[in-house]
Design brief:
Strand order of the largest sheet: 1-2
Order of helices and strands: EEHHHHHHEEHHHHH
Pfam families: TauE
Main location: membrane
Protein name: Probable membrane transporter protein
Radius of gyration: 20 Å
Shape: globular
Mean pLDDT: 75
Number of strands: 4
Structural class: mainly alpha
Membrane topology: Multi-pass membrane protein
Strand content: under 5%
Keywords: Cell membrane, Membrane, Transmembrane, Transmembrane helix
Protein backbone atom coordinates (compact mmCIF):
# COMPACT_ATOMS: atom_id res chain seq x y z
CA UNK A 1 0.00 0.00 0.00
CA UNK A 2 1.45 3.35 -1.06
CA UNK A 3 0.92 6.70 0.64
CA UNK A 4 1.83 10.23 -0.42
CA UNK A 5 4.30 12.28 1.67
CA UNK A 6 3.38 15.97 1.21
CA UNK A 7 6.65 17.60 2.31
CA UNK A 8 8.91 15.05 0.63
CA UNK A 9 6.70 15.13 -2.47
CA UNK A 10 6.91 11.35 -2.91
CA UNK A 11 4.68 8.29 -2.90
CA UNK A 12 6.13 5.56 -0.67
CA UNK A 13 5.26 2.06 0.48
CA UNK A 14 3.66 2.48 3.91
CA UNK A 15 4.71 -0.97 5.16
CA UNK A 16 8.37 -0.34 4.30
CA UNK A 17 8.43 2.89 6.33
CA UNK A 18 6.70 1.27 9.33
CA UNK A 19 9.14 -1.65 9.26
CA UNK A 20 12.05 0.78 9.06
CA UNK A 21 10.75 2.57 12.15
CA UNK A 22 10.28 -0.77 13.90
CA UNK A 23 13.85 -1.82 13.20
CA UNK A 24 15.24 1.43 14.54
CA UNK A 25 12.98 1.20 17.60
CA UNK A 26 14.36 -2.27 18.19
CA UNK A 27 17.88 -0.80 18.34
CA UNK A 28 16.66 1.90 20.71
CA UNK A 29 15.29 -0.62 23.17
CA UNK A 30 18.37 -2.85 23.01
CA UNK A 31 21.19 -0.30 23.11
CA UNK A 32 19.74 2.98 24.41
CA UNK A 33 20.47 4.74 21.11
CA UNK A 34 17.89 6.89 19.37
CA UNK A 35 18.51 5.14 16.07
CA UNK A 36 18.60 8.30 13.99
CA UNK A 37 22.13 7.49 12.83
CA UNK A 38 20.53 4.66 10.83
CA UNK A 39 17.08 6.15 10.15
CA UNK A 40 18.37 9.19 8.28
CA UNK A 41 20.71 7.40 5.84
CA UNK A 42 18.17 4.61 5.24
CA UNK A 43 15.50 7.18 4.39
CA UNK A 44 17.96 8.87 2.02
CA UNK A 45 18.63 5.49 0.34
CA UNK A 46 14.87 5.10 -0.09
CA UNK A 47 14.72 8.42 -1.96
CA UNK A 48 13.66 10.86 0.78
CA UNK A 49 15.39 14.27 0.43
CA UNK A 50 18.18 14.61 3.08
CA UNK A 51 16.70 17.71 4.74
CA UNK A 52 13.31 16.00 5.14
CA UNK A 53 14.98 12.79 6.36
CA UNK A 54 16.92 14.68 9.05
CA UNK A 55 13.93 16.68 10.30
CA UNK A 56 11.42 13.81 10.24
CA UNK A 57 13.70 11.21 11.82
CA UNK A 58 14.02 13.41 14.93
CA UNK A 59 10.27 13.01 15.44
CA UNK A 60 10.58 9.23 15.10
CA UNK A 61 13.40 9.16 17.67
CA UNK A 62 11.11 10.93 20.15
CA UNK A 63 8.54 8.15 19.85
CA UNK A 64 11.10 5.40 20.22
CA UNK A 65 12.58 7.15 23.26
CA UNK A 66 9.20 7.47 25.01
CA UNK A 67 8.61 3.75 24.68
CA UNK A 68 12.17 2.92 25.77
CA UNK A 69 12.13 5.28 28.77
CA UNK A 70 8.88 3.78 30.08
CA UNK A 71 10.41 0.31 29.89
CA UNK A 72 13.56 1.49 31.72
CA UNK A 73 11.60 3.37 34.39
CA UNK A 74 9.87 0.15 35.37
CA UNK A 75 13.35 -1.29 36.05
CA UNK A 76 14.47 1.88 37.92
CA UNK A 77 17.09 2.41 35.23
CA UNK A 78 16.86 6.22 34.89
CA UNK A 79 18.93 8.81 36.78
CA UNK A 80 16.53 11.75 36.51
CA UNK A 81 18.94 14.30 38.01
CA UNK A 82 21.71 13.40 35.59
CA UNK A 83 19.18 13.31 32.75
CA UNK A 84 17.86 16.79 33.60
CA UNK A 85 21.36 18.29 33.39
CA UNK A 86 21.91 16.61 30.01
CA UNK A 87 18.54 17.83 28.76
CA UNK A 88 19.44 21.43 29.68
CA UNK A 89 22.65 21.16 27.66
CA UNK A 90 20.83 19.41 24.83
CA UNK A 91 18.23 22.15 24.45
CA UNK A 92 20.96 24.81 24.16
CA UNK A 93 22.86 22.59 21.74
CA UNK A 94 19.71 22.21 19.64
CA UNK A 95 19.58 25.97 19.18
CA UNK A 96 23.21 26.04 18.07
CA UNK A 97 22.61 23.10 15.75
CA UNK A 98 19.68 24.94 14.14
CA UNK A 99 21.93 27.89 13.33
CA UNK A 100 24.51 25.55 11.77
CA UNK A 101 21.82 23.73 9.78
CA UNK A 102 20.42 27.00 8.38
CA UNK A 103 23.90 28.25 7.47
CA UNK A 104 24.77 25.10 5.52
CA UNK A 105 21.35 25.16 3.88
CA UNK A 106 21.89 28.73 2.66
CA UNK A 107 25.30 27.76 1.31
CA UNK A 108 23.70 24.87 -0.58
CA UNK A 109 26.02 22.33 1.08
CA UNK A 110 23.70 20.67 3.57
CA UNK A 111 23.17 17.42 1.60
CA UNK A 112 26.89 16.89 0.99
CA UNK A 113 27.86 17.72 4.59
CA UNK A 114 25.24 15.30 5.98
CA UNK A 115 26.46 12.47 3.74
CA UNK A 116 30.19 12.98 4.41
CA UNK A 117 29.66 13.34 8.17
CA UNK A 118 27.69 10.10 8.27
CA UNK A 119 30.38 8.19 6.34
CA UNK A 120 33.14 9.33 8.72
CA UNK A 121 31.05 8.96 11.87
CA UNK A 122 29.50 5.59 11.11
CA UNK A 123 32.76 4.15 9.73
CA UNK A 124 34.70 5.11 12.87
CA UNK A 125 32.09 3.98 15.37
CA UNK A 126 31.27 0.78 13.50
CA UNK A 127 34.96 -0.17 13.27
CA UNK A 128 35.57 0.40 16.98
CA UNK A 129 32.45 -1.53 17.97
CA UNK A 130 33.32 -4.45 15.68
CA UNK A 131 36.90 -4.65 17.02
CA UNK A 132 35.73 -4.61 20.64
CA UNK A 133 32.99 -7.19 20.06
CA UNK A 134 35.17 -9.62 18.09
CA UNK A 135 37.95 -9.37 20.70
CA UNK A 136 35.48 -10.17 23.48
CA UNK A 137 33.96 -13.13 21.60
CA UNK A 138 37.38 -14.60 20.77
CA UNK A 139 38.54 -14.21 24.37
CA UNK A 140 35.45 -16.05 25.60
CA UNK A 141 36.02 -18.90 23.15
CA UNK A 142 39.58 -19.26 24.44
CA UNK A 143 38.19 -19.54 27.94
CA UNK A 144 39.54 -16.17 29.06
CA UNK A 145 37.55 -13.97 31.35
CA UNK A 146 36.81 -10.54 29.82
CA UNK A 147 38.76 -7.71 31.37
CA UNK A 148 36.57 -5.49 33.47
CA UNK A 149 38.05 -2.08 34.09
CA UNK A 150 37.20 -0.37 37.35
CA UNK A 151 34.42 2.15 36.87
CA UNK A 152 35.95 5.62 37.19
CA UNK A 153 35.30 8.96 35.57
CA UNK A 154 37.96 10.53 33.37
CA UNK A 155 40.65 12.68 35.13
CA UNK A 156 39.48 15.75 33.17
CA UNK A 157 35.99 15.24 34.54
CA UNK A 158 37.38 15.01 38.06
CA UNK A 159 39.14 18.37 37.60
CA UNK A 160 35.94 20.31 36.85
CA UNK A 161 34.52 22.55 39.64
CA UNK A 162 31.07 22.71 41.31
CA UNK A 163 30.54 19.04 42.09
CA UNK A 164 27.10 17.53 42.60
CA UNK A 165 26.03 14.15 43.87
CA UNK A 166 24.18 11.95 41.39
CA UNK A 167 23.00 9.20 43.72
CA UNK A 168 21.40 6.87 41.18
CA UNK A 169 24.56 6.93 39.03
CA UNK A 170 26.87 6.62 42.04
CA UNK A 171 28.82 9.76 41.08
CA UNK A 172 30.14 12.94 42.70
CA UNK A 173 31.17 15.06 39.72
CA UNK A 174 30.69 18.52 38.22
CA UNK A 175 27.40 19.00 36.34
CA UNK A 176 29.40 20.80 33.64
CA UNK A 177 30.52 17.44 32.21
CA UNK A 178 27.04 16.00 31.49
CA UNK A 179 25.86 19.48 30.47
CA UNK A 180 28.53 19.77 27.75
CA UNK A 181 27.89 16.19 26.66
CA UNK A 182 24.20 16.99 26.31
CA UNK A 183 25.03 20.13 24.33
CA UNK A 184 27.08 18.10 21.84
CA UNK A 185 24.24 15.67 21.25
CA UNK A 186 21.82 18.58 20.84
CA UNK A 187 23.92 20.01 18.00
CA UNK A 188 24.11 16.59 16.35
CA UNK A 189 20.37 15.96 16.70
CA UNK A 190 19.35 19.12 14.84
CA UNK A 191 22.08 19.15 12.20
CA UNK A 192 22.20 15.41 11.45
CA UNK A 193 18.90 13.99 12.67
CA UNK A 194 20.56 11.64 15.17
CA UNK A 195 19.61 11.08 18.78
CA UNK A 196 23.26 11.01 19.80
CA UNK A 197 22.86 7.88 21.93
CA UNK A 198 25.59 6.01 20.04
CA UNK A 199 28.02 8.65 21.33
CA UNK A 200 26.19 9.38 24.58
CA UNK A 201 26.19 5.80 25.89
CA UNK A 202 29.97 5.15 25.55
CA UNK A 203 30.73 8.63 26.93
CA UNK A 204 28.51 8.05 29.96
CA UNK A 205 30.34 4.80 30.71
CA UNK A 206 33.96 5.66 29.90
CA UNK A 207 34.07 9.42 30.56
CA UNK A 208 31.52 10.00 33.32
CA UNK A 209 31.90 6.55 34.89
CA UNK A 210 28.15 6.04 35.36
CA UNK A 211 26.73 2.79 36.73
CA UNK A 212 25.87 0.50 33.81
CA UNK A 213 22.34 -0.21 35.03
CA UNK A 214 21.24 3.43 34.54
CA UNK A 215 23.15 4.33 31.37
CA UNK A 216 20.59 3.15 28.79
CA UNK A 217 17.58 4.63 30.57
CA UNK A 218 19.24 7.99 31.28
CA UNK A 219 20.45 8.23 27.68
CA UNK A 220 16.92 7.63 26.38
CA UNK A 221 15.51 10.18 28.86
CA UNK A 222 17.84 12.87 27.49
CA UNK A 223 17.20 11.89 23.88
CA UNK A 224 13.43 12.11 24.44
CA UNK A 225 13.43 15.79 25.38
CA UNK A 226 16.16 16.91 23.00
CA UNK A 227 14.54 15.30 19.96
CA UNK A 228 11.18 16.80 20.95
CA UNK A 229 12.82 20.25 21.01
CA UNK A 230 14.53 19.46 17.70
CA UNK A 231 11.20 18.59 16.09
CA UNK A 232 9.78 21.95 17.16
CA UNK A 233 12.84 23.79 15.83
CA UNK A 234 12.67 22.10 12.43
CA UNK A 235 8.89 22.55 12.22
CA UNK A 236 9.17 26.30 12.82
CA UNK A 237 12.40 27.09 10.93
CA UNK A 238 13.27 24.66 8.14
CA UNK A 239 9.62 23.53 7.55
CA UNK A 240 11.08 20.11 6.62
CA UNK A 241 9.12 17.86 9.03
CA UNK A 242 6.88 15.53 7.02
CA UNK A 243 4.20 14.64 9.56
CA UNK A 244 2.95 11.65 7.55
CA UNK A 245 6.45 10.18 7.33
CA UNK A 246 7.07 10.89 11.01
CA UNK A 247 3.83 9.18 12.10
CA UNK A 248 4.59 6.04 10.09
CA UNK A 249 8.06 5.86 11.65
CA UNK A 250 6.59 6.48 15.12
CA UNK A 251 4.15 3.58 14.83
CA UNK A 252 6.95 1.14 14.05
CA UNK A 253 9.48 2.55 16.51
CA UNK A 254 7.14 2.53 19.53
CA UNK A 255 6.48 -1.19 19.03
CA UNK A 256 10.10 -2.01 18.18
CA UNK A 257 11.48 -0.34 21.31
CA UNK A 258 9.39 -2.56 23.59
CA UNK A 259 10.54 -5.69 21.75
CA UNK A 260 14.16 -4.51 21.80
CA UNK A 261 14.17 -4.02 25.57
CA UNK A 262 13.12 -7.67 25.95
CA UNK A 263 15.74 -8.92 23.46
CA UNK A 264 18.45 -7.08 25.37
CA UNK A 265 17.83 -9.30 28.40
CA UNK A 266 18.10 -12.58 26.46
CA UNK A 267 20.97 -12.17 23.98
CA UNK A 268 24.64 -11.87 24.92
CA UNK A 269 25.63 -8.19 24.68
CA UNK A 270 28.83 -8.85 22.70
CA UNK A 271 26.84 -10.53 19.92
CA UNK A 272 24.32 -7.68 19.88
CA UNK A 273 27.14 -5.13 19.60
CA UNK A 274 28.74 -7.09 16.76
CA UNK A 275 25.45 -7.21 14.84
CA UNK A 276 24.97 -3.47 15.31
CA UNK A 277 28.58 -2.78 14.28
CA UNK A 278 28.19 -4.74 11.03
CA UNK A 279 24.96 -2.93 10.24
CA UNK A 280 26.58 0.45 10.92
CA UNK A 281 29.55 -0.39 8.69
CA UNK A 282 27.25 -1.56 5.89
CA UNK A 283 25.38 1.77 5.97
CA UNK A 284 28.68 3.70 5.97
CA UNK A 285 29.94 1.77 2.92
CA UNK A 286 26.66 2.33 1.08
CA UNK A 287 26.79 6.08 1.74
CA UNK A 288 30.45 6.24 0.65
CA UNK A 289 29.55 4.52 -2.62
CA UNK A 290 26.74 7.01 -3.15
CA UNK A 291 29.19 9.90 -2.72
CA UNK A 292 31.86 8.56 -5.07
CA UNK A 293 29.96 6.55 -7.71
CA UNK A 294 29.73 8.38 -11.00
CA UNK A 295 26.65 7.45 -13.06
CA UNK A 296 27.12 6.40 -16.67
CA UNK A 297 24.92 9.25 -17.92
CA UNK A 298 24.94 12.55 -16.08
CA UNK A 299 21.82 13.79 -17.88
CA UNK A 300 19.29 12.73 -20.45
CA UNK A 301 17.38 14.53 -23.17
CA UNK A 302 13.75 13.78 -23.92
CA UNK A 303 11.79 14.93 -26.94
CA UNK A 304 8.40 16.33 -26.02
Amino acid sequence: MHIYLPIAGLSVNMLVIVLLGGGVGLLSGMFGVGGGFLTTPLLIFYGIPPTVAVASSATQITGASVSGVLAQMRRKGVDFRMGAVMVAGGVIGSGLGALLFRLLEKLGQIDTVIAITYVVMLGSIGGLMAHESISTILAQRRGEKPHRAQRRHHPLIAALPFRWRFYRSGLYISPLAPFLLGMLTGVMTVSLGVGGGFIMVPAMIYLLGMAAQVVVGTSLFQILFVTAATTMIHATTTKAVDIVLALLLLIGSAIGAQIGSRFAMRIKPEYLRLMLALLVLAVAVRMAVGLTWRPGELYSVELG
